[in-house]
Specification:
The chain has 149 residues and is α+β, with helices and mostly antiparallel strands. It is built from four helices and six strands; from the N terminus they run H-E-E-H-E-E-E-H-H-E. The longest helix has 19 residues, at 79-97.
Length: 149
């Protein structure tokens, strides 16, 4: 007479690796969905990134009851870079989209340069000035989009 196997079945667990098998490589990462911005806002972001602007953020103020639709906020490492970023944004928008700022402020001090294009405003800050004024905190109810290369 054959013996019955009365032992309990083992719970399935990780299978032991056999020699020669490689672990499966993870699939390609899906790119993060980038928000779609108006052409002028996207051009301003590209121009800032071309001059190595840091911590580039776009705040969508349309639902936050702001006086404009978007803020483009970025940081420059020193006064020369801050000026270069602002000049790049201004030149790119003028050349590519024939848009000029209605107001420019802070050019002489280069700690916080503001370019007002009516539908959006570009803020180019020094690190200290950006931390002090905290526009992202002030407009905390706005939708925030971090942008990188």
């Amino acid at each position: 007479m054959a013996k019955r196997n009365t032992s309990r079945p083992q719970a399935p667990g990780p299978r032991p690796k056999t020699q020669g098998q490689r672990p499966k490589a993870p699939g390609p990462k899906k790119p993060k969905a980038q928000a779609r911005f108006p052409k002028s806002v996207a051009a301003a972001v590209r121009a800032a990134l071309d001059k190595k602007a840091e911590d580039v953020v776009v705040l969508d103020l349309r639902k936050a009851q702001g006086f404009t639709d978007y803020f483009v906020i970025c940081t420059g490492g020193n006064s020369r870079q801050i000026t270069a970023i602002a000049d790049s944004v201004r030149d790119t928008l003028k050349r590519d989209l024939d848009e000029r700022p209605t107001l420019m402020e802070g050019i002489d001090r280069s700690e916080w340069i503001l370019l007002d294009y009516f539908n959006f405003v570009v803020h180019v800050f020094s690190r200290d000035c950006r931390a002090f004024y905290g526009l992202e905190r002030l407009w905390g109810n706005a939708e925030r989009h971090e942008v990188s290369d």
